[in-house]
Amino acid sequence: MHIPDGFISPVVAAVTSVASAGFLAICLSRTRENMGLRYAPIMGLTTAFIFAAQMINFPVAGGTSGHLLGGTLAAVILGNPWSASVSIATVLFIQAFLFADGGITALGANIFNMAIVGVWVGWILTQIVQQLLGGSRFRLPLAAGIAGGISVIAAAIGCSLFLIFSGTATATIILPAMVGVHSLIGIGEGLITASILTYLITVRPDLLPGDQPQLKKWLIPVISTLLVAGVLSLFASAWPDGLEKIAEIQGFGELAENVRFSIPTPFADYSIEGFGKIGTSITGILGTVICFGVAFGIVQIGKPNQV
Amino acid sequence: MTKFSIPFKLRVSLILVIGIALLKTSVWWALGSYGAIALCWVIFLKPSLKILSQLLGAELMLLSLLALPMGYEKASFMVSRSLLCLLIMNSFLITLPPHSLGIALKGLPLPTSFQEIILLSGQYLEILISEIRQMQRAAKLRGLSGSSGWLRYTSAAMIGSLYLRSLDRAERVYHAMILRGYQGKLPLESQLTRGDNFAIIFVIIITGLLTFSSYVKN
After folding, report:
1. Distance (Å, rounded) from C-alpha B108 to C-alpha B16?
2. How many structural domains compose chain B?
3. Which residue of A35, A269, B62, B78 has the lowest C-beta tally within 10 Å?
4. Residues A201 and A138: beta-carbon distance below 8 Å
5. Residue where one domain finishes, among candidates A188, A215, A242
6. Which residues of B touch A99 (CB under 8 A)?
7. What is the ipTM of this complex?
8. Do A268 and A160 reside in the same domain of the chain?
9. How distant is the Cα of B31 from the closest Cα of chain A, in angstroms?
10. Is B167's CB within 8 Å of A51's CB?
11. Is residue B163 part of a domain?
């Protein structure tokens, strides 16, 4: 996902550079307090480890390969997203200047996607999912694995948006393509993150964060529903359901097209035209929010007045 | 060998690389000019040509794979541009004396803690590579280098074990540095002289004019 030089416009490059530099300055000031006797080697080694791991590509599909992004892994090992952002930014800096992996003019955008979006989405989701699973520290590898996979998709969406704003690609082509490929890379990221953390939590649990408080009860179904609608829906089968299949076989499927009045439906078949799987995800979340809003409204209207 | 200091050589290398990176796409005359400047810089630094060509060969293969889908002309420009950047930076790195990266970093206008992390990462990368070699040797001595050897290297236990072993060694190295007086401040070989500053300003002007005219002239 390293954007090379020439892929983004000067305006996007400038804006992302300023935003990344500002955010990194905040991260550095937070990290400086921690650069003590114990912490500095962990930070230096984690940075070197992520750098080495990013050099190893694994095949995903159709002649494409991916590599570990490492944002979630770094955040969990270092114990906070501030240091992890600095760590990943350091890796990207070295890669851009010494190995031409990622453009120098695109360094700001790459840092924004991978060191900020990738790290923070991974960290926040790790906390949420760990709390969702009960809060025990032994749930951390599973939570981080899920969060790591989703963080890769989030970073890919960020990368796509920069390319769209730069006029390099259109949304209908780049978004589905990037999300599709990075969903597979996210699976690899999740598996690698979860398995490394499983080993570390068994052998050196002192290196990793401890238990988390369990989520407030009402948040559990809300977040679970959003994760199912927004993430699991990406892996839904595209095959027709039982009735559609029988209609195809028996030959009465065309009856559905003979309607007297057609009502425009922007999200027909749970999709947005040209957006592919990401459209399914967006419609899933929208539908969930609308259903919740309508049900909540009905309850508010229908409930008896309190005396 | 040159008489210029490491911070001077690093700054000039970075100015050239940034100037090349900011070039407008498909302005071949400007890229050619930078190519000539890069060749002069390489002759000036006198790196080992064998090591340089090995590094560039490996990086060229990867760049080509990335650039191919973009179309012939754009891909050629992108690859040539990246190759020039790599030529300049690799020449600088190859001619850097061992363990002088910290001295080079001190010359950059970056926050101190960021410089320290880069320095430590470079040091610990050496430790990682050394630990990998030790683990490979230990596996070989135990007769574990069969056809499924790749599986061991990709297993979480191996990766986790590598991290923990490297961490133990990294902590020992860091404690040794502290005991020898390291306080998070990087050593500085020498300040830039007036002549160095004039040379750097001259390079900035040349690269600025070249890069700017790639946008104007076209």
Report:
1. 15
2. 2
3. A269
4. yes
5. A215
6. 59, 86
7. 0.73
8. no
9. 14
10. no
11. yes
CA distances from A211 to A131, A142, A201 (A): 9, 14, 12
Put simply, the answer to whether B160 touches A45 (Cβ < 8 Å) is no
The predicted model scores a pTM of 0.75
Lowest mean pLDDT, pick from A67-71, A109-113, A266-270: A266-270
Question: From the CA of B192, how many Å to the nearest CA of chain A?
Answer: 22
Q: How far is B108 from chain A (nearest CA, A)?
A: 13
A-chain residues near B17 (CB < 8 A): 97, 104
In angstroms, what separates the C-alpha of A51 from chain B's closest C-alpha?
Answer: 9
Q: What pLDDT score was predicted for residue A18?
A: 93
Quick one: DSSP state of residue A114?
I
pLDDT of B178 strictly over 90? no
Whether chain B has a CB inside 8 Å of the CB on A37: the answer is yes
Place of tokens 């230096």: A44
Pick A44's closest partner by Cβ from B66, B155, B170: B170
In a shared domain, residues A96 and A200: yes
Q: Does residue B212 fall inside a structural domain?
A: yes
CA–CA separation, A277 and A298 (whole Å)? 32
CB A10 within 8 A of CB A166: no
Task: Say what the pLDDT of residue A34 is.
Answer: 58
Q: In terms of Cα–Cα distance, which of B116, B161, B169, B98 is closest to B135? A: B161
Cβ-nearest to B121 among A32, A48, A199: A48
Whether residue B81 sits in one domain with residue B13: yes
Give the whole-number percent of chain B exceeding pLDDT 70: 77
Q: Is residue B88 part of a domain?
A: yes
Selected for mutation to probe chain B from A29, A32, A45, A91 (highest B CB count within 10 Å) is A45
Residues spanned by the domain of B92: 6-100+189-216
Q: What angle in degrees, to the nearest 10, is found between the helix axes of B72-94 and A81-99? A: 100
Nearest chain A residue to B170 by CA distance is A41
